[in-house]
Amino acid sequence: MSDKRDYYEILGVAKTASKDEIKKAYRKLAMQFHPDKNPGNKEAEAKFKEASHAAEILMDDQKRSMYDRMGHAAEQGGMGGGGFGGGFQGGDFGDLGDIFGDIFGDILGGQRGRGGRSRGRSRAQSGDDLQTEMIVTFEEAAFGVEKEINLFRSVQCETCHGTGAKKGSGPVSCEMCHGHGEVRRQQGFFTIAQPCPKCHGSGQMIKDPCEPCNGRGRNKKKEKLSVKVPAGIDEGQRLKLSGQGDAGVNGGPAGDLYVKIHLQEHEFFKRDEYDVLCEVPISFSQAALGCEIEVPTLGGRVSMKIPEGTQAGQKMKLRNKGIAKLGGYGFGDQIITIHVETPAKLSKEQRELFQRLSELEQNSSNPMTKGFFDRVRELFQ
Hints:
Strand content: 15-25%
Strand order of the largest sheet: 10-11-15-14
Largest sheet: 4 strands, mixed
CATH class of the largest domain: Mainly Beta
Number of strands: 15
CATH superfamily of the largest domain: Heat shock protein DnaJ, cysteine-rich domain
Structural class: alpha+beta
CATH topology of the largest domain: Chaperone, DNAj Protein, Chain A
Order of helices and strands: HHHHHEHEEEEEEEEEEHEEEEHH
Helix content: 25-40%
CATH architecture of the largest domain: Ribbon
Shape: elongated
Number of domains: 3
């Protein structure tokens, strides 16, 4: 009986596992035990080889069928259907080629394309996203506005049109990797590909760089951009301007620009989502007798009736006088909080009137006050 472990057991999958399940299980083990992640660890290297061998067998329909019928004996040439034809040989990865490419790319930090080639300068790359900030007034945020911002960003070089090469010349194949974008090294029975250190995986070199951009294909430039701020935007929200970030490389798309909004404080107004909050002062006599006053709103001054007997802190609502809701679905309200103002200095005539009023208040013209102190006397007599 063979002392080898069962291949399904090694990968931790059931015998009915699909190829996708086998790939997923193998990838997890390969990422865990790959020699580049465990330098000098012989046990990890052995487990990596064991998992790779098991996956190679189970990913091949013919080999898997023979293994399911005969177990490890199928690997001994001459048995049943003639064995696995040499079994798993270093460098012949079969259906696992795409998995190895992904794993080595993750481990080595490279980006790999079809056929195991690195995605370097010869492939288009997106530009970086950028973020800036904009200060808007309370009214601008409420109604929307279009404003200009100054921005430093990378733009395509106008001289070389993004190639990085001097006019009349062009990129040449890298001498180290001969244009492949990668170099290979042998590790045990594996051949591992890494991005070329000379061309950084591009497969190309620029011998005569463009002078204005020094071969980069892009230059930093200060530009003015017009930004439309929608009505209803709030503090800390961001606007996305697609394609207004740094220019891409080799014809790749530009990144995006994100504009973070900050609101200036207002002299009278505060904000609660789409409602506008405003505190309005009135006098004792206005609160007691009632009156009609003008209050500020985002659309200008409006007249508002103060009913007789209005209390300090009482709230009143002006419907649809608030901030436009994002998307154009109506408006918030304006909430007025009444502040009854106490006179700071009294004239002789005012003092006499207030003294007379104080005497009259003993006759329960203020029921809340009378009820409160009557209850206090009952509790603390």
